[in-house]
Every structure is written in C-alpha cells, then in structure tokens.
Amino acid sequence: MSRKTIKHINLTIVLIFLTCICLAVVYPLIYTISGALSPGKSIASMSIIPFADGITFEHFQYLFTQTPYLSWFKNTFIIAVSTSALTIIVASMGAYVFSRFRFPVKKQMMMAMLILQIFPSFVGMVAIYVILLRIGGLDTLWGLVLVYLAGNIPYNTWMVKSYMDTIPKSLDEAARIDGANHFRVFATIILPIAKPIITFLGITSFTAPWMDYIFPKMVLRSADKQTLAIGLYNFVTDKKNEFTNFSAGAILVAIPFVIFFIITQNMLVTSMGGSAVKE
Amino acid sequence: MSNSADVKQLAADGSKQKKVMLTAIIFMGLAHIIYLKQYVKGVFYALIEVIFLIFLPKTISKIAGLITLGSPQPDLPVKMRDNSMFMLIDGVMVLAVVAIFAVVYYLSVRDAVNEYKDYCISKMMKGNKSSFSALLGKSFPVMGLAPSVGLVVFFVMVPLVFSACVAFTNYSAPNNIPPNNTVDWVGADNFGILFGGDASWSSAFGRIATWTLTWALLATVTCYFGGLLMAVVLHENNFKIKPLFRTIFILPYAVPAVVSMLVWKNLLNGTFGPVNRTLMEIGLISNPIPWLSDGTMAKFVTVAINLWAGFPYFMLLSMGTMTAISSDVFEAARIDGANKLQVFRRITLPLVLYQTMPLIIMSFTHNVNNFGAIFFLTGGNPKVADSTLSGAGGTDILVTWIYKLTVDLMKYNFASVIAVLIFVVLAPFAIWNFSRTKSYREGEL
Predict the structure, then answer these.
(1) What residues in chain B have per-residue pLDDT under 50?
(2) CB-count exposure of residue A61 (10 Å: 0-12, 13-18, 19+)
(3) B431 interaction partners in chain A (CB closer than 8 Å)
(4) Of A55, A274, B9, B261, which alpha carbon lies 20 to 30 A from B377's?
(5) Which pLDDT score is estimated for B129?
(6) pTM for the complete prediction?
C-alpha cells in the first residue's frame, strides 16, 4: 500500500468516527425540533423517525395564546438584564478598588471571597428565604435579582480584579496627576481597557438566570411572575407529558443561545485558551 | 485626662502615642477630636458609635434570642409565639453588624495612631481642610466596595453562617417547625446521627457521599478526556468540513442544561421513550432497557449524558490551549526527526495537561455541586431501599439530597450538616487552586 492510500484510509476512519459522534450529538436536538413541530402532545405518540408525523405550528400558537409564555419570557428577560447590568457595575467597582488600592483587611476580604465562591448559593436557601421575607422581597423580581447578584459577586470580582491587575498602573497615575478623580479614572480609563472581561462578565451573568430553576421556584409564587425554566419544567412533570409544547418553548429559548455561540466560537476558543495559559 | 497643654500643643516626639491610642479606644473618634483636631472625621466616627450605642439594647436582646432561640408558648396564638428561625437569622445578622462595627472601630483607632505618627514626623497638624479632601479621596474605595461587601455579607455570608448554625439545631419536621414550635440547640447530635449514630441514616449518607465522589470523578475524567480526544482529532487532521464538525460539537454546550437534560429524560424513558422504541424497531433489543429506572444503569446513564453535555467545554478549552502553543516548538521537534505521534505524546499532551490542570480541579468541584445534571435527568431516582426514610434515590448526589431534605422532607438540620460537610471538603480545593494564580504568587493579594 502506498503512503497515500494509508492516509486516505486514516482519513476515512476519522471521518466515520466524527460522523458517529455527530449523530449522537445531534440526535436529541433534532428530535426536540421535530417534537416542536409534531402534532399531538406526549412523546409517547410521536414517531421514532423525526418529522415523520407531519409538521404543524399549533404548539407555538398554543404557547402564545393559551399559556403565559410571553410573560415568562418577559420576566426572565427583565431578571437577566438587571442581574447582568448590576453585576457589571458592582463587580467592576469592587474589582477596581481591590486592584488599585491598598487598605487594611484587604487580604482577608479577598480570601473570604474566594472561599465563598465555591458554594452553590442554594445551600443557604432557607436563610435567603427568611431574609427576603423580612425585607419584602418574596414573590418579586427584584428579590430574585438581588439573590443572583450577591451570588455572582465573589467569583466575578476576582476574575475582573485579575484582569485589571494586568493593566499598567502608570496609566491611571498619569490621569491622576492631570487632576482626574478616582471615579473618572475608573470610568474613562480602566473600564474601556477592561472591556473584554466586562463583556464576558456581562454575557455569563446574563445567560445564567435563563435556566435557573431552584431560586425562581422558591422566591416567585404568583402565576404572573413565573420564569421560563419553571414554565417549561411544568410541561414535562411526572404527572403529565406535553413534550411537544415543551420542545416548542425550549427551542425558542435555545435558538438565540445557539446562534450566539456559533458566531462567537472563535472568540471562545481563543479566550478560553488564553485564560488557561494566564492562570 | 486631657490637660490644656495637650490640646494646645500636642507633643510631637511620639511620647503621646499611648495616650492617643487609649483615647481612641475609649470612644470612637475621640482622639481625632481632642488631639488631632480632625473634627469632621472625629464627629463622623463618634456618630457611628452613638448610633451603635442607641441600638445596643436591641442588639443585646437579638443576641440573647440567638442563644435561647425562644421558648415554647403553646397557649399563645401561632402568630405571637417566638419564631426560632427569625430569631436565629436576626441574631446572625446582628452579629454581622457587630463584626462590621468592630472592624470600623479597629480602623478608627489605627487611623488615629497613624495620624499621630504622621504628625510627629511632619510636626504639622493637618486639621480639617487637608484631611477632609483626603477623606473624600479615601471614601472612593469605601463607596466602591460598600455594595459588594453589603450584598456578600447579607446574602452570601449570613445565609452560610445560618446554615452552619442550623446544623447544630433540631430544625426539622414534624416536631420543630416554626412558627408552631420552637427550635433548640442540640450540639453535634445531627453529626452523630449521620456519621454512625443511626444505622439507616448513616448508611444512606455513606451511600450518597460515595456516589457523589464517584460521580464527580467520573464526570470530570470522561468530559475532560472526551473533549481532549475530539480536540486532538480535529486539530491533527486536515479536511475541508472541519469547521462544520466543530460547530456541531459545541451545540450541547450552547443549549441550556435544563432543556437538554429534560429532553434526554424523555428520550430515555423506559416505556415510551423513542430510544427504546427505535432499538426495538431495529431489532437490537427485544425488551425495553430500563435506562433510568435501574439503579446501576441509571448511574452509567447520568455519566454518559453528562459527557454528552460536558465534552464541548473541554474540547474548546484544549483547542484554545493547542493553538496557543507556539509553532516553534513543533518545528524544533520535527527538525529533530520526531514523528507525529511522538510530537503529540511528548509535546502537545503534556503542555495541554499542564495548562488545563487548574480547570480540571474547578470542574471537579463544579461536578460535586452539579445539581442540574442529576435533578433534571433522573430526579435522583430510581428509588432504593432507604428512599422512604432518607428521601434520596439511587442517583442522588449530596446537593440534590440537600434540596430534597429541605423541600420535601423539611429536615433542615440534616441538610445543613451536609452543606457544612461539602464546604469542609471543597474549601481546600478552592484555596489550593487560587493559591496558584498569578496575583497570589506575586504577593499582590
């Protein structure tokens, strides 16, 4: 056998292998899309071959007319946007102070932050419930935002602080000599340079609330304040199976995310590789 | 204590340092007013202490409440009885406020002493003006940090301390649920019950703890090497549709975990799931496979589905690291006559492993706490022998068990013991991981 044939055989094996993995990766996704477009309700009545039952848009119609899907979407969107915006403001201010100032108990505070960030915040859920009850934050969207925001701060302050440490201090010193106060230095010099990490922070804190289940379930009670994760989960409980409606709702959420990830995949590869090298 | 000479002319030879310090300790801000003539700052500090003193009786009663947790009052209507949980949380919050006050107090004393030292060196009283503008400048870090500290203290630390406290009480259904009944401190009893005191609870705990560690290890290792394998295959081979494959492979990462786990749960359903129906149609199996209802099978399935959802992250990570390796290294190896396999084994793999190691640790701690991967796929099921008592099924890990203990069984005391335990086990990992970061090693912390 010549070198070329061996190379060809190798490539064929690789391609077959990759195609198999592709099928496994894509199968549930295709089936979900097919579920969203199939008539009927339960997954039990669906054909095993995707799209074999015909195509209908009745589930989307059902979502928008018969269920509060739009209000779930609106609530989740409000929560995600506020969490993201507030996280950026609070975490970047904190990170700037940690990165640029020397003050007593700084070391202890940084250490406390890094220990706190390992805990999933629902470990303290009973206490959070009682605190929200006390300050009137139960069954409100801002109560939930507050919980997410607080949970985001320890890790993200660390992350942004590490990035700001790499920005030369001579830059802000020059501005200080020119008479700019700390806030101006922060807003007009540090923030623009730290844009990549701020963007990353904004995206991660925006995406997380979309699919959180525990806290909305605990904090939000009334029907008009539910979020997407809870609404979708209720389509496929042990008691009922409305896989088709679930799929329709799920792909409406997933599609923007997927498009976003596909567009930014090159940036993801470089930023992840970069972060690994830096740490 | 302060004679007129002191007020007029403070000795600048450092001899009054002890006196300044003592005055600062006696009342917050006093030294600033009497000796250093920094009235604005001094009044500000003094005001803090005055406010604190006004609320002192309330503080003491809240702390007393924390110690007693209320007494049973069966003859009162439910609304008027002592609510142990409110008392506990108020007590913890008041302790947090007292701690913050103590830190401010300490800082004010320190500041007074430092100002005095400055004065001794410069022989000049700063007075109000300069220290006022300095105060404004100094207030920026305080204002910048205040929101972070406030939120973290009251929504992260207080809940965690509260949880840790609950681990030492009998807060659980059916007999100790406020507001009907009170809760009492029980020392380390809960730890005793879970770690050997009660045979069925301890065995349930042992079973779940073992599975949690096994799960976290398997989930991390499979995802890591799965992702690495895909990255290598894509990196080492050149063909036209490579970007297409990469795009497809990141799809599981892009789809929110709740959605994909619930989809898998439906696909793998034993009776009507399409996976079983397809396999039976093709003729590969004659009876449905109990993917999620058989104890051992369900464990394998959770790891496998987690691999489906988790490998893209490590694939992206390894790809990023591989592209970040300088091409000089490869060139040098090729000139030395190394073949492709040797280059991979001796250069690419060690470099990638070394650089992604901290993230493997992070991924391990993440998997120990990976609520979504278990809860939405299996819900912790199938049921096992101890499920009726412990509420935990065959695939439950510690965090999903905490959730069930809290929401379903209302055994808050046991849930808190487990939370404390997870903390004790995971904290060293986090500290070790961060002790390797650049800013820590360079002593900038």
Answers:
(1) 1-7, 445
(2) exposed
(3) 111, 114-115
(4) A55
(5) 55
(6) 0.83
